[in-house]
Amino acid sequence: MVAVSAINAYLPVMIQRYIDNYLAVGNATMELTIRISLAYLGFVILKLILVYLKDYTFKMASEQTVGSMRNRIYHKVVNLGMRYFDQTPTGSVVSRVTNDTETIKEFWNVFLTFVDGLLNAISIGIAMFALNARLAWIFMAFIPIVIVLMYIYQKYSTIIYGRMREALSQVNAKLSESITGMSIIQHFHQEERMKQEFDVVNQEYVSARISMFRMNALLLMPAVNLIEAVALFIVLWVFGMQFLDMTATDVGVVYAFTSYSKSFFHPIGSMLDSLSVFQDGLVSGSRVMDVLNRDDDAPQAHEGATGEITDGKIEIKNLSFSYDGVNDVLHDVSITANPGETIALVGQTGSGKSSIINVLMRFYDFQKGEILLDGQSIRTIPVKRLRERMGLVLQDSFMFFGNIADNIRLHGNYADAAVESAAQFVNADGFITDLEGGYDAKVIEGGSTFSTGEKQLLSFSRTILRDPKILILDEATANIDTETEKKIQQGLQNMRKGRTTIIIAHRLSTIRDADRIYVLRHGRIIEEGNHDSLIAEGGIYHDMYQLQTFQEKGEEDGE
Description:
Subcellular location: Cell membrane
InterPro entries: AAA+_ATPase, ABC1_TM_dom, ABC1_TM_sf, ABC_transporter-like_ATP-bd, P-loop_NTPase, Type_1_exporter
Number of domains: 2
Distance between the termini: 83 Å
Radius of gyration: 36 Å
GO molecular function: ABC-type oligopeptide transporter activity; ATP binding; ATP hydrolysis activity
Transmembrane segments: 32-53, 107-129, 135-153, 217-239
Largest sheet: 6 strands, mixed
Keywords: ATP-binding, Membrane, Nucleotide-binding, Transmembrane, Transmembrane helix, Transport
């Protein structure tokens, strides 16, 4: 950059000297003219090469920097606690990882523009003072005006760019929500409403960008061009007033200053233009830093934790838990599951069943009470080891883009034989081998080409492959029809053998053989016992079971 700036300052001096020292006094020869032309051409070619090297190396550095930053924020996102994702729209997270980091790349280039412009302005300024100090001061007099423009721009642009970035985040959030819920939108004929809502958030973004363009058009390069024109007018007027009788030897100085006029103000204008990117980058950078600086990471074990899960005994003692730190959703809950036992959690929606699983899986940290696994605090077991030894099957099974084997393996270090063995263990092998390609059959994102039962069997295979000591089934058959459920019950029975199992039950008929059943209401355990004892008590569980039995009998009679 220093070399390029020096060349930019020297090229007009070459022409000025040629005009004043040779051409104006009649000493110019063809040989001299050719020599000066070749020298001029050589400097221009050298300048082009240097500009290429400068831009290439700087662009490479900016790409690598932003690529590293994008990795860093993604690594942060995947380690954040579930509370963050409960409170933040998916589109907003995507916008910070993609749009904001891309803007920071342009922000990085601001420094190239700024340093380049500063060096050019300094070298041109030195050259102007060397030629004519009085005229050079005319140009310098406009620098305070440029500084005032920069101050005004930064004051108002912060507000506009903040509004623009937030509007873009809302656009991404609305788009992500719409795509995810497209089946619901079309089913309930909500297309027009969603279009109108998207138009509103999109117009907010368009309006913010229009405000940005108006501000840039008023305060950036157009303003600098006006200042340049005024400065050049004054310089020419000074020449006209003070040198009406000037000789031809002054013509080169006039040429040099008219060349320097653009060369001096153009980099300043570029620096001002880069303020728009600079301001946008500041806003985007602050949004990225908001994520990187968050301290609500997923719960971690104590430093130096070396605990292991060997037998699978679970003891939950006087557990209280709140998602927001204010309103408890679990109150003084105590549960025990001995090695190899099966316990069930039942209750109405919102009774706290899934909250117990969320705490047990360390998706959230609890505030009061104690959780012991094999007699040791859950906080003394490394989270990675905890998740390896605890298998969770959710109500909704998510499938990743790829193939069947990869969705079971999840890119773990498992041989094909182990994958197939796991599928056979849960009775998933039957439908997999019927697919074209078998275990290499293609899976699109979400696994929408598979039935709910098939996806759940793949989820069972994924879990059993890791041979967990503790198995958690969170309403794993809730979305499966009764006939399909009967087909996979054998797979569930196989999974439960030799493992401590916690079942969140939707159909109470599936937990009749549980060693203990805990009935929850409003985050409290109100009944406890096995199926027969709870039926004999004639309490809440008895009523729930009788109601479900009546409904299932009605469905069978209807069929």
